[in-house]
């Protein structure tokens, strides 16, 4: 079903739909894949995060959730508005640090989003 997480239930701190059932994808790969996906970039207003959907070469449906500058900046602004001491990123070394213009712009935008 479109836009519904349908991962098999894999126990992980009591969460039925978690990273225990999925895998991490590098941000550079996500940025390339989102444009050729079935759905393009979608936005979940509850989670305040983007995601996209695609089918692999075997016809299996996948849903990829990620952060982008918009979602990171919303989270950073929330932290600041509550007077909290900071924010942590899941895995900053998954950004694309290659020398390509698009990669440099995406990486810079992600780091800038942490400073509201």
Automatic annotation (TrEMBL):
The yes or no answer to whether the keyword Hydrolase is present is: yes
**Gene Ontology biological process:** chitin catabolic process; oligosaccharide catabolic process
Where in this chain does the record put each GH18 domain? 1-116
Sorted alphabetically, the Gene Ontology cellular component annotations on this record are:
extracellular space
Record keywords: Glycosidase, Hydrolase
What molecular function terms (GO) are annotated for this protein? chitinase activity
Task: Output the Pfam families linked to this UniProt entry.
Answer: Glyco_hydro_18
Specify the protein name.
Answer: DIAC acetylchitobiase
> What is the scientific name of the source organism?
Sapayoa aenigma
Name of the coding gene: Ctbs
